[in-house]
Every structure is written in C-alpha cells, then in structure tokens.
Design goal:
By secondary structure, the protein is of the alpha/beta class. The protein contains 19 helices and 12 strands.
Length: about 425
C-alpha cells in the first residue's frame, strides 16, 4: 500500500515521498516475538495494525545521563530499525530535559540532577554509536531525531498542573522503587513524580502510535498512554523489550548508571573481551537480543548448551565475534578474536577484564555472585575446593572465605580473569 507522507526529518524539507508499507506476516511475527517481553494493550491488536498497511509513528526515548550506550540499549534500536524497514515513521528521542530531572527507576535514592551542558555533552556521540544498527540518514525513510527540551522547557506551570491532574498520588506510589523507599524510610522527592508526567507528555507532543521501551520504563510509558487517551482520544501501543538479566542472579548484565557492561563506544578488542567475560548462562539471551543470528540457530545454541554438546567458551567466542562484527565490521572482529586467542595461548592476562569493586568488610563470594561471575556461593565454594581459583602469580586459593587485602587479579577456571578492586 502506498501512502503519502510529509517529510519531517529536516526543517527545510517540504517535498512528499511515497512510502510502501511492508506487511509480510512472517517478518511481522518475528518482530512481535524476538526480544519482546510484553505488548500493551495486546500483541494481537498491534499485529492487526501492522498488517493493515497504515503507516505508524513510533519512538524510543533515552535520557542522556552518560556519554555511552550499551548493547542492552541497542536491542531497542535494532527493533526500531526493523520497523523503519517496514516503512513506518520512527523517532529517536533524546531526553535532554528529562535527564535533568532523573528517572527514579530502580533507584534506592534520587538521581543526581545534571546541568543542560552536561546532558548536551553526553549526546554528542550517541548517533555515531547507533549508526551501525539504525540507518538514521536513510534517504527514503530517514529517522527523525528530536530533543524533549524543545517542548518540555516551554510548558507553563499551568500546563504542568493540568498534566498532574490526570494522575493520583496513589498511582505514583505504585512504583516499586517508591514503595521500597517508603518501607526503608528513605525520602521521595516531589520532583521525581514529574518524571512520568514529562515522559508521558513526550507521547502527546509527538502524537505517536507506539512507544518502544524496556520493562523498567513500563510505568512511564503507560503514563504516556493515559495522556494520549485524555488529550487526543487515541490509543498508544507500549512495546516492551526484554532487559538483559542474568538468569541465575537476576542482576542486570548492563548498566549505564553503574558503568558496567559492553558499551557501543568500546574498541573492537575491548568489546570482544567484555563479551568473553560474560557468564556462560548469559549466552542465549545475548544471542537473542544483541545479534542478528536467526531464531532457529539460537534454538540450536540453547540445545547445545543445555545438553553440553559444545564447550560454552566456543559458543561465547561466536557470540563475541557476532556482536563485535555489528559495531566494528567483520575484519575488526576477526582481529579482536585473534588478539584474544593470542593472549590466552601465551598464558597472559587480557588487558580488558571484568572489574569488581569489593567494599570494606564485604565477603568476596557475595561480590562475585552479585556481579554474575559465579552463579552462587555454593559454586564458588566448589571452585575453590577443586583448586580452580588462583591469584595472578598462580598461587591457589583454598579458603572459600578468602578476603583480598589489596587490589588483585583472580583467575577462575582455565580462562576467566576478574580484577578485584578494594574500595
């Protein structure tokens, strides 16, 4: 189906382009399945819209609280690109205003507010980092990039009062992190209630049909759905992607706020090494959410892992190659692979290894489990008992309650290294 659409990517663009909307059911079914946690109000209704041939407008918003994005963020943008290739209008929203408020999501305390200068500085490299996975400047169907400071900074106090009148305090307090803070008698600041209002208004201003987000943003996305219904009488689909979580520890694999994980601005060697440092149990989801490997092949990988048909290290090497290839190209991925192999064939310690901060008096086993290095204290005890944990000088550690007195490197098993930083 051909539809006319006025170009909104560049201010001086007044010509019309004709966009054919792809309605291939097999492609749509995969988009609605891969890396998807939940679709509201329902997957069936969204599929009906996508099959109708109507051109939809969808967006992803991200706060520029740091200069780098990680491969967990990339899952959303890879999905956004799939919608763009179907012919739909896609928008990347950079939260240069909302970043200054600070989303309280998953935080035990209020986030430190940033200056606009800090936020603008953070955004400079974002689009460059995303270039390998989304064609922002495609001539036929370009991505629109917007900054919510452009409209949120213009709201009057009356506007904010009107927005706030659509929500109750009880609804705001339904957020898990607020409930937790109340239980722990920690403060909840009034400005934190404004965050879902502001993000919700983004949906109204952009007049979108779909918002893509992680499950940690579900509350905020639903606030936007409420406001769209109130202000424009229209429905908004909330397309929630899966978060990268260790299936055993339930800890996040990637964190922009904590500075952990695999970041898009890493060198090819660093990126490859960081993937190789991931626990074995993370392999299937990383293949699913962070690569273009087919669903059929991923099912085979899961089987190989569960039945121990292949060495997890070999599967992880394939994963590291696939991820690095996306952001640096096949040649650079091969070079990173060779560098990694050369390091271990010489028995050396890789330059880029996982770093774990150990607080004063914190048991080493607790820190290793929390970071996902080992799945449990029981497994840590087994590794130590079997002589599989050594210091950098190859001295065995035979006490499960061992406490490092200073920063050091541990070798766990044959090829895994972690740097313990005493903080």
């Amino acid at each position: 189906m051909h539809r006319s659409h006025k170009c909104s990517f560049k201010p001086a663009c007044y010509y019309y382009v004709y966009m054919k909307i792809v309605t291939d059911e097999k492609i749509i079914d995969e988009i609605l399945t891969r890396s998807v946690r939940e679709i509201l109000p329902s997957k069936e209704l969204l599929k009906k819209e996508l099959m109708s041939g109507r051109r939809l407008r969808l967006y992803i918003g991200a706060d520029a609280t740091g200069p780098a994005l990680h491969i967990g963020h990339a899952t959303n943008y890879m999905t956004l690109e799939k919608f763009r290739r179907l012919g739909h209008e896609v928008i990347i929203l950079i939260g240069d205003f909302t970043a200054r408020i600070g989303d309280p999501t998953d935080k035990g305390a209020a986030r430190v507010q940033l200056s606009r200068e800090q936020v603008v500085e953070h955004t400079k490299t974002w689009l460059k980092q995303l270039a390998p996975i989304i064609a922002v400047e495609d001539e036929q169907n370009p991505v629109k990039v917007v900054y919510n400071h452009d409209w949120l900074s213009k709201l009057t106090f009356e506007d904010v009062i009107n927005l706030a009148s659509n929500f109750t305090v009880q609804r705001m307090l339904e957020r898990d992190m607020f409930e937790k803070r109340l239980e722990e008698e920690k403060p909840i600041y009034l400005h934190e209630f404004f965050y879902p209002l502001m993000q919700g208004y983004d949906s109204v201003h952009l007049d979108v049909d779909i918002e893509l987000c992680g499950n940690d943003q579900k509350f905020n996305a639903l606030a936007g759905r409420t406001l769209l219904q109130k202000y424009k009488g229209k429905e908004k689909f909330v397309f929630i992607t899966t978060l990268l979580e260790n299936p055993i520890t339930k800890e996040k694999m990637m964190s922009k706020s904590l500075g952990t994980g695999v970041f898009l601005n890493m060198s090819n060697v660093d990126m490859y090494g960081k993937i190789m440092a991931q626990p074995d149990e993370n392999i299937p989801q990383l293949f699913m959410d962070c690569t273009y490997v087919s669903l059929e092949e991923i099912e085979k990988i899961k089987e190989q892992l569960s039945k121990k048909i292949m060495n997890p290290r070999d599967l992880k090497a394939r994963l590291a190659f696939e991820v690095t290839k996306i952001y640096h190209g096949e040649k650079a991925a091969a070079e990173a692979e060779e560098a990694f192999r050369a390091t271990f064939s010489k028995g050396g310690v890789p330059e880029d290894i996982q770093e774990i901060k150990l607080g004063k008096g914190e048991p080493l086993a607790d820190a290793l489990v929390k970071a996902g290095v080992v799945p449990s204290k029981t497994e840590w005890r087994r590794l130590v008992t079997n002589g599989a944990v050594r210091k950098e000088d190859d001295e065995k550690i035979d006490d499960p309650n061992f406490m490092p007195a200073q920063t050091m490197i541990l070798k766990i098993g044959k090829r895994r290294f972690v740097k313990i930083i005493i903080s």
